[in-house]
Amino acid sequence: MSVTPFTVPAHPEEWEWVRQRVEEFRFFEEPEGHHWEHGANRAYMKRLRAHWLTGYDWAASVNRINAFPHVRVEVEPGFSLHAIHLRSSRADAQPLLIAHGWPGSILEFESIYRRLAEPEDPAAPAFHVIAPSLPGYAWSDRPKVPIGPRAVAGLYDRLMQVLGYDSFLYQGGDWGCVIGGWIGLDSRHVRAIHLNGYGLRSANMRPTTEAETRWLQRAAVTQAAETGYLHLQSTKPQSLGFAMMDSPMGVAAWFAEKYCGWSDQTKGAIDPPFPMDVLLDTIMIYLSTRSFLSATWIYRGMALEGGFSIPEGRRIEVPVGVASFPYDLLAFPPRSMVERGYNVVHWTDMPRGGHFIGLEEPELLLADLRAFVLTIG
């Protein structure tokens, strides 16, 4: 298996196509008084479109992304994953795979990669950082058929072996936390996992306390209100692709609604609480690589694999650290419920933060990951 240095391409021809399609987009009506409760907000999308056309510089973003060392790693014959591979100068550095989800990218943790590798405090743990793009995303290869998170866990495990790491630590949220659960179950190489999202569920989710009952009730409400995208992408993603692969504004609206609704809205914003350039960088990764559709295949693959449940009689026995952020899409249940399926040795109830935690609260994430690693030794 090979490891090849990689430079992220700007694809100017793709940018020109995107620019033209955004410029030609025709707006339409929305319910009176609507903000984000029915989906993407027209006023925000008009401002985003104007900034996209007149204030955004994709080429400059590509140059910034290329300041990190990138590789493409053959993990199966003819199939390669893209990753940032940032090695620390510290002799005691430990390998850390940090995994993004949807609708995210490797840029979600951009602000902490170098600090993970070269911490300011010599007493803090240092890491060789490996941040892969999911299969079908960005500059990773597309699988020939949809594959789910358990299969991705196997590819990530091989990624670390090909890079020369026989033992590694893992951090993830969104798909990253689901994949992390499978790595914890299946890998002989992962030493510990740190999660900022609740991915795999215990086979037994029957509530035994009032707090567990309340969590299940809230989860049912959240599922009904916020997971229509999941049902669509896990059942008929190809139909969605015919619309989205031809509409940059459609992709932008699909993503912007998630960046708004899944973030910590206690900040008082009704629009996504991130600079527009942050959203556009991620949107442009999907558009410039034509990967919106193939990025949805993991949902279909998850459905074909059988869902989110830990197999009956199994438990994730490697040490698990939990960073529980209160405004995540689906916040962690009480610790008593999580421990049915996970060997939790570190738990932090965070004071704030939502789903895109690498963008919202990178300091909290960084501090908790460091504390977990120091806990397990």
Please name the defining characteristics of this protein.
377 residues, alpha/beta, Rossmann fold, nine-stranded mixed beta sheet, 15 helices, 9 strands, 16% strand, globular, epoxide hydrolase activity, Epoxide hydrolase, hydrolase, AB_hydrolase_fold, aromatic hydrocarbons catabolism
**Silhouette:** globular
Mind summarizing the main beta sheet? 9 strands, mixed
Query: Mean pLDDT, as a whole number?
Result: 96
Structure summary, number of beta strands: 9
The end-to-end distance, rounded to whole angstroms, is: 32 Å
Q: Specify Rg, calculated over alpha carbons.
A: 20 Å
Q: What percentage of residues falls in helices of 4 or more residues?
A: 40-55%
Tell me what the structure shows.
This protein has a single domain (3-376), classed as Alpha/Beta hydrolase fold, catalytic domain (Rossmann fold). Helix 9 runs antiparallel to helix 12 (292-305). The chain has helices at residues 12-24, 42-54, 58-65, 113-117, 149-162, 175-186, 210-226, 228-235, 237-244, 248-261, 276-288, 292-305, 335-338, 357-360, 362-376; strands spanning 3-6, 70-76, 79-86, 94-99, 127-132, 168-172, 190-195, 316-324, 342-349. It is globular, with a radius of gyration of 20 Å. It is built from 15 helices and 9 strands. It has a 9-stranded mixed beta sheet, sandwiched between helices. Strand 8 (316-324), helix 13 (335-338) and strand 9 form a beta-alpha-beta unit. With 377 residues, the chain is of the alpha/beta class.
